[in-house]
Amino acid sequence: MSLSRRAVIGGGLAAGTALLTPLGLPLAASADDFDKPFTGFAPPSTVLREGTPASVGLDPAPIEVAKSQVRSHQVAAPGGKPLYPGHVGLMAHDGVVVATQVDGFALRYRNATEELPRDQWVPMRRDTIFDLASVSKLFTSIVVVQLIEEGRVELETPVATYLPEFAAAGKGSVTIRHLLTHTSGFTSWLPLYSRYPDKASRIAAVMNQPLTNPVGTVYLYSDLNLITLGVLVERLRGQSLDGVVASRLTGPLGMTDTGYNPAAKDRTAATEYQAVPARGMVRGEVHDENAWSLAGVAGHAGVFSTADDLAILAQALLNGGAYRGSRILDRKSVALLISNFNEDFPGDDHGLGFELNQTWYMDALSGPRTAGHTGYTGTSIVIDFASRSFAILLTNRVHPSRSWGSINVARQEWAGGLGRALPITPRGSHIAWETQAKHATNAVLSVPLALPASGARLGFDLVAETEETDVLRVESTSDGATWSLVPLDIRHPGDTRDGAEDGSVSGTPGERRWTQVRAELPGGVTAVRWRYTTDGNTLGRGVSVSRIRVVGQGGPVIDSDDSTTTFAASGWTLTQRS
Fold first, then answer.
1. Beta strands in 299-388 (DSSP E)
2. What's the burial of 150, exposed, middle or buried (CB within 10 Å: 0-12/13-18/19+)?
3. Read out DSSP for 475-543?
4. Paired residues of 480 in beta bridges
């Protein structure tokens, strides 16, 4: 491991330019940086240990910002309600737990509107057990993939081959893959708990349910897909789903606080006060009504867990399916979990059970090899194989009522804090300008020019990890008032020839590599600027530019490494690695 450091570039910078404090910290030399993604799995011997962000080369500042942001949502805005009573968050990178946060309350409310007396509030603990809601789907998916690995189930074989009753109502062509990727054509939900009298009739209703859409034609997230797969697992294993998960997943990994129908109810985070059905304040029982009506054990919901147990699962997957000498999947099976089977449905990338590349909650960790899931009760897990990192955020956001709002902003902040903590290193010993502007703000980096009549050639290195609606525009002006897009030639990673661009760059999450950008500037140009504009939605990692050079016939006009004081920056940060 070589030593490098982030240093301040001193001297006369324009107003609005942010400088980073020198850290003087050891940084990994290979693939720990955001712009040097890993391509394989971590060593199977990797075991989680506690550490600091700095100990593995991360910038602690974005993580601290994320902690503050996530904590702030427990306080109601004027005239509003808090997003959740409490939370437990955990971040890890390269086998090191770099951040945890425990705050708020596991139990606070008596009913949907009234708080308990203050002395009856139950504080969150690091080992608080949360109802994972739909994160449970990952557990079902893993035990299904174990059957595929054993050759007992084929991915492209009709489900009815294993569950003959599933062929009812024209579902004979639905395959295992269709269920795992939510392309079966099933409706998203049925009120099994209220429409049918017992477990047998509820399961039969799923088996007999006709498709809403032709199989394989649309992506439609559906609990029925995973309920069906839970039944399939039980049928083929001859054992209840909770028993299969315990014996083949949580048990081997040592996830002692994970399972269905938790016995330690006093350690669980309360969820919702339910008047219909008349359950009162739900605590220690699954929140999802359908899973509750199936005795708390179902393929789509019902698993309870802690942040530390989920961290073990995440690291086992990063390790290629093994942890502390126990293997739950082989490496090829883990690769299936995170391979996009939904290329026909852009934006709905999906592996086997795992969602992929979903910026709306993965934020700056998003990419084609970023897998995860969310849960309705307020839970989420994001596993980024490209950086060997993961972010877990567990909240009880439905306590006391599901109507108090979405927590997607907190999910973005937690995963995004870890993603932005991963450093981007300029190639060589060059300076870089980086921006992570948010919410419809302009971040502008500009430099004045005095070009010869023959014009000049502009070149710079670029990392752009944005969503399509967050755009970097390279613009020039001849009068200081009217700005025009500069046509760009961009060489993307792996390309053998240049690609022409209109001067704007967006929608390239997942590349995580420096690209070379070239452009021709006509004579008369008096300034060039890089303008990054974002919307009010999610944000990727942002944009970095480095090695900015303008060269005319007579030689260099501008070199960013030698002319930092010439640049004016608002919303951009100047950094260097040496």
1. 303-305, 322-323, 326-327, 355-356, 370-375, 379-384
2. exposed
3. EEESSSS-EEEPPEEEE-TT-SS-EEE-SEE---TT--S-EEEEEEE-TT--EEEEEEE--SS---SEE
4. none
Dist. CA 489–CA 499, nearest whole Å: 5
d(CA 244, CA 234): 8
Residue 31 and residue 512: Cα distance in Å, rounded? Answer: 11
DSSP tag of 250: I
DSSP H or E stretch at residue 131: strand 130-131
- What pLDDT sits at residue 441? 77
What pLDDT sits at residue 439? 59
For residue 344, count CB atoms less than 10 angstroms from its CB and return exposed for 0-12, middle for 13-18, buried for 19 or more: exposed
- Please name the residues in contact with 387: beta carbons below 8 A apart, sequence gap of 6 or more: 31, 32, 34, 37, 38, 93, 365, 419, 422
Distance of alpha carbon 566 from alpha carbon 156, whole angstroms = 60
Q: What pLDDT is recorded for position 23? A: 31
Mean pLDDT (10-residue bins), the chain, 578 residues: 26 34 33 81 98 95 97 94 98 98 98 97 98 98 98 98 98 98 97 97 98 98 98 98 98 98 98 96 98 98 98 98 98 97 97 96 94 98 97 98 96 96 84 78 92 94 88 94 94 54 77 91 96 82 92 92 91 77
Predicted pLDDT of residue 437: 72
Q: Which residues pair with 50 in a beta bridge?
A: 97
The tokens of 301 are what?
Answer: 């919901």
Structure-token pair, residue 401: 């009522």
Burial, 76: exposed, middle or buried (Cβ in 10 Å; 0-12, 13-18, 19+)?
exposed
Report the alpha-carbon distance of residue 108 to residue 119 in Å, rounded. 10
- Exposed, middle or buried by CB within 10 Å (0-12, 13-18, 19+), for 69? middle
- Name the token pair of 56: 């593995």
